[in-house]
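Fill-in record for Phospholipase.
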Amino acid sequence: MDKLKVGLVLSGGGAKGAYQVGVMRALAELGAQVDMVAGASIGALNGAIVASAVTPQKAHAHLAQLWDRLAQASPVEFQAFGYLTMLSSAGVALAPTHALDRVLKAARLAAAALDVDLAKSLDRLENSLASDAPLKALMDEYLDPAALKAGLPLYVSLFRSQSPFDDLLRIAAAEAGVMDTPESAYVHVQSLPATEQKAALLASAAIPVIYAAKTIDGKRYSDGGIGGWRTMQGNTPAGALLDAGCNMLIVVHLSDDSPWSRRDFPQATVLEIRPQRAIARDPSLLDHRDLLGFDSTRIPSWIAQGYEDTLACAQRIMRPDAARRALRESEKILEAKQAQSISNEARLADAMARLRRDL
């Protein structure tokens, strides 16, 4: 029988990545051990913390510290012009909903008041709307490059970017069912030059338009969650760990009703941790506040939800497993008693035989 190799898969989902802090707390308490980690977008950043920690307990402690900071100070800061540009570009690419149409009308009114030409602003989409300097500063503070190098193998998904606006159009086409997005690439972070390792993490989390794409090995990459949109190939990078030799996966989702399916991976035992109640806090706002809502209200609630869901998932598995263990134990006891009975009968038969000889 092959040795068990356990991989932890951390999906992307922006600020909802706080859910994974609670997951790690529960896994640490349950004594779970993992051999490799894969992540997309915010899952790549969380995954780097997990991979560089010496124990699951340390991983949870470091994540808890990081997300406590994120709850107090959001890493996303938009300028007024940039925010309006984002709304405008979203309208061009993703206009099918009435809710978004209302948002865009409000954006255009605000743009008129600020004397901003939204049509011309589309030409500026090659530049990001937010600086990744806050994320870089947090990584410098909470991620030790030496610990990452010596830590668990870490894989992240990266999407080959043509341009921010093109990336948005690809997502829109996939959402509309016109065509799927190209698959994301899987990259083993520790195999990259030291100068590109943090860039790869930032690239995996580079939401199109909001953050600038990054150059890795001469190619431009953005948010790894974009690739293979219909099956979440990029956003839930389980394939990276299967390719690396894992035969058991713990997969953590950050969306309600993710289309990712364990049936696509029959070669592995898969434990899925899915939200047991809605993880979306503002579904009426098209997931915008959930994606970028790094605040002191949402983050603690997501952490608690991740913890509760993981324990509930583990209990569902452990109950039948405990029953199977109890059954096996009772069978062993019965076998032992039967063996003892046979042994006693054999000794009695031997004694009777000796007695007959003596007579």
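KEY FINDING: The two ends are 56 Å apart (CA to CA).
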